[in-house]
Amino acid sequence: MVDAKPVFQVLLHLLFLCLCSANGVQSFKEKKVLKLQEFRWRQHGGTRSTVCLSQKSRKEKGATILEIKHRDYCSGKIVDWNKKQQKRLIFDDLHVRSLQSQFKNRVSGRIKDVSEAQIPLTSGIRLQTLNYIVTVELGGRNMTVIVDTGSDLTWVQCQPCKLCYNQQEPLFNSSASPSYKSVLCNSSTCQALQFDTGNSGACGSNPTSCNYVVNYGDGSYTRGELGSDHLSLGATPVNNFVFGCGRNNKGLFGGASGLMGLGRSESVSVVSQTSALFGGVFSYCLPTTEATASGSLIMGGDASIYKNSTPISYTRMVPNPELSTFYFLNLTGISIGGVALQAQSFASGGILIDSGTVISRLAPSVYKAVKAEFLKQFSGYPPAPGFSILDTCFNLSAYQEVSIPTLKFHFEGNAELNVDVTGIFYLVKTDASQICLALASLLYEDEISIIGNYQQKNQRVIYNTKDSKLGFAEESCSFI
C-alpha cells in the first residue's frame, strides 16, 4: 500500500511553488467583485420622488428607529446625472476645506462673534455633501432634516422668513405651535452657543430672545433665534427640545427643512438633549443610492435590534479638548487586498469620522501608500483622467464586472471598518468610462484626516458617547 503522507507533502510543495515568482513569494490578495451594471444602476437611482416627508419610524426594545435615506430623495429627478456627480466632488472639496479652516480657527482661539459675522460672498454649498435625511415631528409638523455628526445645533427654516431657500415641506410656524417657547438671551443655553457652534448667542431686537448665527465657512449659513418645542423622534417624545428657528438661511440644502445636529456638545445637540432617554448612544446604517434603498438611524443602545452580519468591534473615541464636539478615532493602519500598509502618519493621532463628508481624506503620505498598493493589485485596466479631488481613475466601460482589492481601515483596539464594494469606487460617468478610487489626499501632512460617509455605506456605526467608544459592524442596510 502506498503511503499517502509523502504524496500529500509533494502536493503542498507544488502548491507553494505555484505561489512563488522571480520576485519572491506572492500571497493571495483579498478581492471583492463589483458588478458594473448593478453599480451603474445603483448610482443612477432612477426617478426620485419629489416628496421626502413621511418616512417610516418605529420603537423597539426602548430604542427609536428612524428610516434614513439618501438626500437625493429631496432633490426631485436628476436630469444630468454625470454633472450631478461631478458637482458633488466640487462641493465635497469645499466642505472639507471649510472643516479644516474651522479646525484651525478653533485651535488658534479665533472664534467669530455674532457682531463679527459677515454675509458670505460665495453661494452656500455645505449641505450638498450632507447626503442622508430623516423625518422627525417638531411642534406637530413633519420636518425632514439632514443628519450631520459634524454639527451640534439642530435647526429648521421658520416663518416669517427674511431669506429662505426652497424646501419640500411648509416652513415651520412657531406662532402656530402652542408648545413653542423662545430661549432667553441670558440663559445658560444661550451662553453655551459659543462653545457648541463657534458663535456666541446675543440678544436681538426683542431683548428676551437669543439670536444665533452658524457660519459654515464655505458660503452656507443659518441665522435666527433659539427656541424650544415638542420633538417626536418616531414614537418617542422629547419635551422642550432646543433648536434654531432659522429666519435667514442660505445654501444648497436640497428640499430638506433643515439639519439635525448629532455632534458631541454638552447642551444643544440631539445626543445631549436625549441622553436621559437613550443614554448618549445612537447608530446609523447608511444605504446605497439605489431607488429602493433605505437605512436606519437608531437612537438607543440595545444591540439586539441591530441586523449586523459581523460582530461589533469597538475603538475608543479620542479626546480633543480644542475640538471636543467632533468624533475622533485613532487610525492604526489601512490594508489593501489584505496587505497592511506602512505610513508614518498612522502613529500621529486622530482621524475624524463625519457623516457630512462624502469622500475620505487622508494625509498625503498615507494616501500615497494606499494609491501605490491599489495600483499594484488593480493592474491591467485602461486608465482614465483624474477628476477634481480624485486622481486614480480607470475606464471600465468594456467590463461587466471587475475584481477589486478589499479596503479596510484599522483602529485602536483591533476595530475594523470593512469598506463596502460600492464605497471603493466613485462612478464619475454613468457608462463607467471614468470611475475612480473613492479616496483623496489632503493638501498637507498636518491637516486632520476624515472618514467620509461614502466609505461608511452598509456598515452599522455605533456612537456611544457615554462610554466614549465607537463600533463598526457590517450590515446590509434596511429599515425593515
UniProtKB/TrEMBL annotation:
Record-level Gene Ontology MF annotations: aspartic-type endopeptidase activity
UniProtKB keywords: Hydrolase, Protease, Signal
InterPro entries from the UniProt entry: Aspartic_peptidase_A1, Aspartic_peptidase_AS, CND41-like, PEPTIDASE_A1, Peptidase_aspartic_dom_sf, TAXi_C, TAXi_N
Entry annotation: catalytic residues: D148, D354
Every Peptidase A1 domain range: 132-473
Family annotation (SUPFAM superfamilies): Acid proteases (SSF50630)
Signal peptide location: 1-27
GO biological process: proteolysis
Superkingdom of origin organism: Eukaryota
Family: Belongs to the peptidase A1 family.
UniProt protein name: Aspartyl protease family protein At5g10770
Organism: Prunus avium (Cherry)
